[in-house]
Design the sequence.
């Protein structure tokens, strides 16, 4: 009997214990102003997003520009305040942490920017760029700081370290710059890395190298990673689960391979059709892409936000009722009326 | 001199002067393009692919140094023309350019219709009304609603602005359009839409394209043939069907292997090392330091070898 009880209780207890970051019904709205003070509505950048991220888990958030993925990311980083909902990090509400709490939180979360050259101050050497977070993070001893810089630079494979320490960002190639950005994010030994399109500015031949580096770091340090991208083809090399975002909402959540081979949401299907693979036959065929463009987030469409562009619309339902999350398969959720 | 080709480029050279010496951005490029066809110039940043576009259209920056070679457009060596003749008879009329980030270079204070019709007024000498009519026609070809003619650039989305930029290159009915990274800043679905548009105008209007890009996967959407550029030189020219099935040059093979795929089990690879500086490129094969198949011969610069109608600049195929 006793054994049975342990067996039934343990998984659920372990599952909640393992949750590193919990995003609950998050809404981030930006107020529009008319003439500087009159209210003119809201941009519903993030509108009801919920997910749990477990320790050591890599997830990808895929969406087109303007779908709210950057607003979601910046709210998770504590740069925006949500209008509604909560972001819990190890059970603590990010927006009730206070100054000391936030400082601790920022040491736990690393941020890898999209454009490495824009993210590195041009007037600072690599040494200063990497030393600053340690100074702010309260590492007093200079020798310890230098030691940790060496360690992290070895880890991102910027060796021999001496060759790079006194260089300025413009003296490095794009791939090396991105390594410095990753080193900076790793310095304070975070538990979570938020990577915003970390390879979109890099050349094809370097891209894979950086993705592999991130993957290796993730595995050796058991890091949780939120990988934000618009490129579906890089996702499977990096993350276990994938969330598709459209017009401020997560419309499909699934393990990566399953989503790539068996997508449920019509928008996800369109994204997959739209993604090219190198194949000479492409030149003679036209792609079947949904008409129109993503909606304005000031007045998003009623009902399902994809319905004006959807070929499989159910008249009288999709344009009036917001689809809840259905689970046609275990661990695969989709917000679409087709699966009711 | 092959007259049956739309475009025949022979040994084109464009160097830039800098304080550290000449940057050999385009170094002896030869390329052919037939009527109604699209060639993709594939290369990574800094390989000189945008400079090649500039060299073909003679849009030279102030620090241009050495600049010679032959560019035959429908049999006429346009390099021999004077600047004024070139401007009047070649640019826009013979071939036009959709520059990189074209959608962000539209004039914000002009209505897009006026802007699109301007090249027609200047180069075809038509009246404003006729030019606007041409612009209207081109808008239909690229799939922009005609009432957008009276809008301003900021009122359009990125994809629409990119279509407007393409309409502008089309309005003078050139035979050839050079597209410099036409979709690199666009979303997946917008990108797929733009390529649908390009394919359609290729079929309907019989226009030829030079597509300059770093993105192998999307380049296959338009390519009839592929030219791979590395460190200022073209290292392989193949028909698209051959190239995407099996690239010949080691650099092209490596590049193809680095493309992430949606399906399949193959892990993508990366190329170690960096391209050589174009200030003083090595006298050897320029890819040799990074090449897995390197052997003694590679100390010398390889000529271009022919193999089953494909051209490849590599000693492996001697």
Sequence:
């Amino acid at each position: 009997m006793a054994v049975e009880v342990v067996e039934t209780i343990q998984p659920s207890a372990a599952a909640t214990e393992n949750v590193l970051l919990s995003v609950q019904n998050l809404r981030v709205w930006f107020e529009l102003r008319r003439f500087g003070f009159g209210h003119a509505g809201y941009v519903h950048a993030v509108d009801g997003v919920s997910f749990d991220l477990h320790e050591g888990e890599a997830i990808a958030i895929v969406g087109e520009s303007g779908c709210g993925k950057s607003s979601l990311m910046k709210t998770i980083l504590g740069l925006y305040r949500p209008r509604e909902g909560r972001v819990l990090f190890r059970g603590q509400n990010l927006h009730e942490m206070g100054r000391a709490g936030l400082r601790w939180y920022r040491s736990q979360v690393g941020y890898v920017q999209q454009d490495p050259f824009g993210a590195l101050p041009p007037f600072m050497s690599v040494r200063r760029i990497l030393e600053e977070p340690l100074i702010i993070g309260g590492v007093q001893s200079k020798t310890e700081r230098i030691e940790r810089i060496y360690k992290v630079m070895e880890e991102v494979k910027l060796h021999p370290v001496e060759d790079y320490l006194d260089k300025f960002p413009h003296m490095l190639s794009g791939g090396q710059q991105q390594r410095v950005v990753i080193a900076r994010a790793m310095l304070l030994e975070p538990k979570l890395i938020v990577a915003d399109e970390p390879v979109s500015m890099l050349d094809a031949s370097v891209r894979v190298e950086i993705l592999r580096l991130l993957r290796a770091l993730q595995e050796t340090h058991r890091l949780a990673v939120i990988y934000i991208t618009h490129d579906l083809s890089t996702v499977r090399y990096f993350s276990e689960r994938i969330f598709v975002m459209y017009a401020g909402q997560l419309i499909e959540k699934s393990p990566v391979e399953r989503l790539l081979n068996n997508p449920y949401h019509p928008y996800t299907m369109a994204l997959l059709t739209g993604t090219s693979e190198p194949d000479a036959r492409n030149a003679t065929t036209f792609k079947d892409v949904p008409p129109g463009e993503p909606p304005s987030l000031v007045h998003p469409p009623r009902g399902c936000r994809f319905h004006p562009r959807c070929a499989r619309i159910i008249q009288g339902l999709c344009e009036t009722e917001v689809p809840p999350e259905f689970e046609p398969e275990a661990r695969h959720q989709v917000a679409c009326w087709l699966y009711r | 001199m092959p007259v049956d080709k739309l475009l025949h480029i022979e040994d084109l050279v464009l160097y830039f002067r800098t304080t550290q010496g000449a940057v050999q951005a385009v170094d002896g490029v030869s390329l052919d393009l037939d009527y109604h066809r699209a060639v993709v110039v594939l290369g990574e940043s800094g390989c000189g692919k945008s400079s090649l576009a500039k060299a073909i259209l003679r849009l030279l920056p102030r620090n241009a140094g050495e600049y010679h070679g032959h560019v035959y457009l429908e049999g006429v060596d346009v390099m021999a023309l004077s600047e004024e003749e070139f401007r009047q008879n070649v640019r826009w009329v013979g071939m036009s350019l959709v520059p990189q980030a074209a959608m962000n270079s539209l004039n914000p204070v002009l209505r897009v219709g006026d802007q699109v019709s301007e090249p027609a007024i200047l180069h075809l000498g038509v009246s404003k009304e006729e030019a606007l009519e041409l612009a209207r026609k081109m808008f239909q070809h690229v799939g922009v609603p005609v009432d957008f003619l009276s809008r301003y650039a900021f009122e359009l989305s990125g994809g629409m602005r990119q279509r407007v930029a393409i309409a502008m290159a089309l309005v003078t009915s050139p035979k050839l359009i050079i597209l410099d990274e036409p979709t690199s800043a666009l979303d997946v679905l917008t990108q797929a839409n733009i390529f649908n548009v390009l394919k359609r105008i290729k079929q309907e209007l019989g226009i030829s394209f030079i597509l300059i890009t770093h993105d192998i996967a999307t380049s296959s959407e338009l390519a009839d043939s592929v030219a791979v550029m590395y460190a200022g030189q073209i290292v392989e020219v193949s028909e698209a069907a051959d190239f995407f099935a099996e690239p010949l040059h080691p650099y092209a093979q490596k590049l193809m292997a680095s493309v992430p795929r949606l399906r399949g089990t193959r892990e993508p690879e990366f190329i170690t090392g960096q391209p050589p500086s174009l200030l003083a490129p090595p006298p050897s094969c320029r890819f040799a330091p990074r090449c897995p198949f390197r052997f003694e011969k590679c100390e010398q610069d390889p000529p271009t070898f022919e193999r089953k109608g494909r051209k490849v600049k590599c000693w492996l195929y001697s």
In short: The CA atoms of residues 157 and 179 of chain B lie 19 Å apart.
